[in-house]
Write a sequence for this structure.
């Protein structure tokens, strides 16, 4: 089936639903990618730090070899990890991801976080800390990192470039000096954190938005047993029952109707298929309003280390 897409500022299209691969375990993600492509997915979201790009690449390669898809049918995203912010490291980092993914180019490459870490040993230590278990940061300005990204477009290694986990002030800094404007912002986004202000800001700057953790990321490593479960939220459950859909399908449809790309993660074939089955119904305006009302600025990926960066604290901007 043909999947709706979002046209980015550079004229290229991103399918509105993709397969997320954060936390997808090695040994399972290759099959998940194959199942997703068979189910109709053409958008796969990856990152260097996830540690599973090799398997993602294996899954893609199998489906291309089988003739199920051509490379140009697929939209593949990856992300620059924090230790590679120095402009001289950017090209090598994307080449590592391309080698793992067995691809000649990426459709979209994102700066994963605005803060940089020290690159201690040519990319071997992904989370550098000192003997006191304190983060070892780098002094590199992400504005300079962006200049390295622009060179990737010039070289044909990536088609589109963007940002992840940046706030409005940080995006403004990029825009003010960019030769190639950001095409995409990827952020945590779900009804507990609907990100309306940031999405509206991005639209005013002609930046498309992708929602990660759209189902509430119940398997995030730091989750506590008492944390609220988004898919058990009474309004979500009621709306799901009304449409004869699963809570996950409601949460995915919610983002799609906002024209926000959405990347639910699963390695379970039945869920991968179910998560894609959201184009045969439409949420009413009243139901969208009810879902919006759940917002409580409930950030599930509020990682404390973000705020310790001495140069570019994440801060509670929007």
């Amino acid at each position: 089936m043909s999947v709706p897409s979002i046209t980015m500022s550079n004229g290229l299209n991103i399918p509105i639903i993709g397969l997320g691969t954060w936390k997808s375990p090695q040994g399972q993600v290759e099959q998940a990618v194959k199942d997703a492509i068979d189910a109709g997915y053409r958008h796969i979201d990856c990152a260097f730090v996830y540690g599973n790009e090799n398997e993602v690449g294996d899954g893609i390669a199998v489906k291309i070899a089988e003739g199920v898809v051509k490379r140009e049918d697929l939209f593949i995203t990856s992300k620059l990890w924090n230790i590679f912010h120095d402009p001289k490291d950017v090209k090598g980092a994307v080449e590592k991801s391309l080698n793992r993914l067995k691809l000649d180019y990426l459709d979209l490459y994102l700066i994963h976080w605005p803060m940089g870490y020290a690159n201690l040993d040519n990319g071997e230590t992904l989370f550098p800390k000192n003997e006191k278990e304190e983060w070892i940061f780098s002094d590199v300005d992400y504005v300079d990192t962006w200049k390295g990204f622009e060179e990737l477009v010039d070289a044909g290694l990536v088609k589109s470039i963007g940002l992840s986990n940046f706030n409005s002030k940080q995006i403004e800094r990029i825009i003010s000096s960019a030769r190639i404007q950001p095409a995409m912002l990827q952020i945590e986004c779900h009804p507990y954190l609907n990100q309306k202000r940031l999405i509206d800001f991005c639209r005013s700057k002609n930046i498309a938005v992708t929602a990660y953790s759209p189902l509430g990321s119940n398997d995030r490593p730091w989750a506590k047993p008492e944390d609220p479960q988004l898919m058990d939220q009474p309004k979500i459950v009621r709306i799901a029952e009304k449409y004869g859909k699963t809570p996950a399908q409601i949460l995915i449809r919610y983002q799609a109707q906002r024209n926000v790309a959405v990347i639910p993660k699963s390695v379970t074939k039945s869920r991968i298929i179910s998560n894609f089955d959201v184009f045969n119904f439409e949420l009413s305006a009243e139901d969208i309003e009810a879902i919006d009302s759940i917002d409580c600025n409930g950030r599930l990926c509020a990682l404390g280390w973000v705020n310790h960066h001495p140069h570019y604290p994440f801060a509670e901007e929007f």
User: Anything to note?
Assistant: The beta strands are 5-7, 13-15, 19-20, 43-45, 75-80, 106-111, 158-164, 184-188, 208-212, 261-262. The mean pLDDT is 92.
